[in-house]
Amino acid sequence: MERKSPVYNVIAVPVEKIKPNTYNPNKVAPPEMKLLYESVKADGYTMPIVCYYNKTTDTYIIVDGFHRYRIMLEYPDIYEREKGLLPVSVINKPLDQRMASTIRHNRARGSHDVDLMSNIVKELHELGRSDAWISKHLGMDRDEILRLKQITGLAALFKDVKFGQAWRPAEGALEEEEDEEMLDLE
């Protein structure tokens, strides 16, 4: 089967039909947003927004390009010049694959919000994805996945993790400590 990259089928989509996803951990600071606006103003849209098409709602869910989408929403001059249309490249993948695509796009470019990133790891875990799958598809090592799981504070994320026994008090040690504390109080 011959594969053809989605970028060869860019379509013009009314911005009103495009919706952000609920899981993108990428944040752009105001100076960089201003720079993005200046870039789009000077050069136009040079890269399409990557979306998943939801037939049921007739909407396009953003996989990559949220900030380029925001530029059109927040700057009337850009909206008018582009006639309210954004260039869109469509990928047809299930949610877990779209989440992985979003992370791959983001990680190739910049930084992430740690709390949002840990929520993605949590959601992927809840979708039945293993740490190995997350590692492979999101480009993370096991320690990073473990740290992100720890942030969520959910014990369910650790059910398959093997923990060693750090230390155990010797038998009677707790009683001896309590006796010593009682002597200190007297």
Overall description:
- The chain has 186 residues and is α/β, with parallel strands linked by helices.
- A hairpin with a 4-residue loop joins β3 (49-54) and β4.
- A five-stranded mixed beta sheet has the order 1-5-3-4-2.
- The chain has helices at 30-43, 66-74, 76-81, 95-109, 114-126, 131-138, 142-152, 173-185; strands at residues 11-14, 18-19, 49-54, 59-64, 85-90.
Net shape: globular
Number of helices: 8
Low-confidence stretches: none
- Major sheet: order of its strands? 1-5-3-4-2
Q: Gyration radius, to the nearest Å? A: 24 Å
Beta fraction of the residues?
5-15%
Count of DSSP E strands? 5
Ends apart, CA distance between termini: 83 Å
Class by helix and strand content?
A: alpha/beta
H and E order: EEHEEHHEHHHHH
The helix content is 40-55%
* Integer average pLDDT: 81
How would you characterize the largest beta sheet? 5 strands, mixed
Task: Give the key terms.
alpha/beta; 8 helices
How do the helices and strands line up, and which of them pair or pack?
Layout: E1 11-14, E2 18-19, H1 30-43, E3 49-54, E4 59-64, H2 66-74, H3 76-81, E5 85-90, H4 95-109, H5 114-126, H6 131-138, H7 142-152, H8 173-185
Parallel strand pairs: 2-4, 3-5
Antiparallel strand pairs: 1-5, 3-4
Short structural summary:
This protein has 186 residues and is of the alpha/beta class. The chain is built from eight helices and five strands, in the order ββαββααβααααα. It is globular.
